[in-house]
Amino acid sequence: MNKLHILGVAAALSATMTLTACGQQSDSEKTNTPSAQKSQTTQSVTIGFAHCCVRGEISTMDVVEDTIKQLAQQRGATLLFETAEDSKHRDDLTVQPNQIKSMIDKGAKVIILISVNGKGAPEMQKEIVEYAQSKGVQIVAARRPLPKTVHTHFNNAISVASSTEGAGLHQGKMTSELWKKHPEWDRNGDGVIQYGLLQGAENYPKTLARTNSFIKAISADDHKLERIATEYTNWERPIAKDVVAKWIESGEIDKMEIIVGNSDDLALGALDALKEAGKQPIPIVGINAIDEAQRAIKNGEMAGSILQDVPEQGRVAYRVAENLALGKSATDGIDVQLEGGHTINVPYAVVTHDNVDQYLKK
User: Fold this and answer.
1) What backbone phi and psi angles, to 5 degrees, belong to 52?
2) Using one digit for the tens of pLDDT, what is the confidence trace for 310-326?
3) Is 230 helix (H, G, I), strand (E, B) or coil?
4) What Cα–Cα distance (Å) separates residue 273 from each residue in 234, 249, 268, 297, 303?
5) pTM over 0.70
6) E strands along 71-191, which residues?
């Protein structure tokens, strides 16, 4: 198959109560979408869904996939689905563009895109958007927003996610507040937060944004930070576990007072390694507040996480795609704001032991 051709925040913690209320809404209240009802569309639509990841690898991606597929079925749409990363062509950035070309050839007028990661991902994303624009096709990027440079040069793409900087800012602010609340965390009594950092993918915008905004929020509270060790994990829990196992073996873990994960999968990988080694638990913070992380917070095994309303991201992405496929405005009938003409941000909430019960599934 021929390759496609390339043609040519801060979020404040004071908002937490508002975001918490948002997190308590029922599915039928969110986005004003009667998701439990059969289709409100007046005609059949064909939507492509290009997914990054194999199931079970990144839990939040599974949630988005399930939400989009369920809505498409409920609303009577034809959904063309392809997964880019599997054992055969993992991290091959040529696969997803070809899959999208095939979907367009089959009649998709809108593509929901969860982009693959990797060093060449921004160029691949540009290639996809550019080709789609040449064919009159809209792109709705879900979970992983497109780079600003892509939005600057093309007008056929909308990103639906949560502010990348906002996740790290909330995580940093949460960590700062927990540090004040738990003076016993400062095991050496030097007033400095010694930490280990599990980062996502190298040279990936979300990794950089989450890391830098975490540090920014901590520093804004006049805390001093000392990074003991950091490694990239490609967002994968098993890799995070292996990294922390190495920290345990080298003794670096004994210098750390907190482990910070760019996502909950990485935080849980750290927890896996600590448990397996029989090490005394240390505070671990993550991002996403997935179900397993919430249970770990409830049990005192994690200190906290930042809730992205992942099902809502899936709902909004689908509804935007459906609107565009029907020739409507992107936000028609959806209670969201389109920022800068190309971005929809779904808000965050802080989840700690003090409030985790209101988020845990019964």
Assistant:
1) -80, -35
2) 888 999 999 999 999 99
3) strand
4) 17, 11, 9, 17, 16
5) no
6) 78-83, 110-113, 138-142, 157-161
